[in-house]
Amino acid sequence: MTDASETHGALDGLFVLDLTRILAGPTATQMLGDMGATVIKVENPKTGGDDTRGWGPHYARNADGSASDLSAYFMSSNRNKQSIAVDIATPEGQDIIRRLAARADVVIENFKPDGLVKYGLDHTTLCAAHPGLVYCSISGYGQTGPNREKPGYDLMAQGFGGIMSITGDPDGAPTKVGVGIADVMCGMYATIGILTALRHRDKTGEGQHVELALIDTQMAWLINEGMNYLTSGELPQRRGNAHPNIVPYDAFEVSDGHFLLAVGNDAQFARFCDVLELAHVATDPNFKTNLGRITNRDALMEHIKPALKRWTKEDILAALRAVKVPAGPINTIGEALNSDQAAARGTVRDIPLEGIKDGRVQVLGNPLKFSATPVKYRRAPPRFGQDTDEVLETWLGKKPAP
């Protein structure tokens, strides 16, 4: 079920047929592509492809300065893929997808539950025809349950799954995370599920259906706050930047802005108090232990906050680093991506792209570092349908129309 026409990465020879759009599915398939898989992204010619191609306002610019079909949003999750324009609502399009699925190791889709049944491209049909196929389905609420028919959006997942109830200022409105984290994390879980199913297939020859939902995955990563509720029955509250289980762990105001403080244990707290000349606070039985500081959080802040306002950001960070108390800046995205650390770690990557202004696009790099099979940035995010003729000829022997 594989083709060795390209050699690259740990997943060299793996063929992924990508029927996803927006963010969760494309995040998963980009990850597989980064690790060497051949990823064929199927896009609808009636709509101009993946919806996010039009999600501006920021686009890679063509050589003449006009906006291309590569929005910043689309480029965030679609590198290392080939794009083909195929209308799966037509018999010809369905035949193409079936024939590609016969060659594929993985099919991944994020249609509504049963949305592909009428085309004969659902998991039941394709897995029956190809027993070794790993078929991954992503939806908003899952293939079962009372909400299975509802559409899935990141905002709805964050609202339904509980994370918004603990995000934001204590006196403000529930707030979503600043990026589509429910989508991204669902994509990460999908990647893990696909790789696990492939491991099973390689041992047994048996494929399977991997199914997950934005809602399920969002609730799974409630982590300590989810467990706080299950353990106590008490609903976690919004605390802004504060931590429910560690004090002091928050953003604090100084004379020229804010900085982050993350006191992780009692010894760090004592050293922090020494820097602020608050030795009496460090030895106070109400504050000496983390449990005491949690219990007496508000009283502790009355000591800490006025003392910190006498410092500048630069001075307090230097003083706390010197005594090994975790503290750091609150960077803008520009400061983060242009930092020395980002440069050293390859956080931003340039990928050549013909026809685009400056002949390249910049993307956020994959954070995985492999000693033997490093991530390679082989393909820039594709223009809509640019690889249709090549893919159909390579995989199906279908010559392009004259």
What does it look like?
The protein is of the alpha/beta class and 402 residues long. It folds into 2 domains: 15-221 and 343-396, Crotonobetainyl-coa:carnitine coa-transferase, domain 1 (Rossmann fold, 3-Layer(aba) Sandwich), CATH 3.40.50; 249-331, formyl-coa transferase, domain 3, CATH 3.30.1540.10. Helix content is 36%, strand content 16%. It contains 16 helices and 13 strands. The chain has helices at residues 24-34, 72-75, 91-103, 123-129, 154-160, 181-204, 214-220, 223-232, 266-275, 279-283, 290-295, 297-308, 313-322, 333-337, 340-345, 388-396, and strands at residues 15-19, 38-43, 59-61, 67-71, 82-85, 106-109, 134-139, 208-213, 249-254, 257-262, 327-328, 348-352, 360-364. Strands 5-2-1-6-7-8 form a 6-stranded parallel β-sheet, sandwiched between helices. A hairpin with a 7-residue loop joins strand 12 and strand 13. Helix 1 (24-34) packs across helix 6 (181-204) and helix 6 packs across helix 7. The protein is elongated and about 85 Å long. Mean pLDDT is 96; it is low at 1-6.
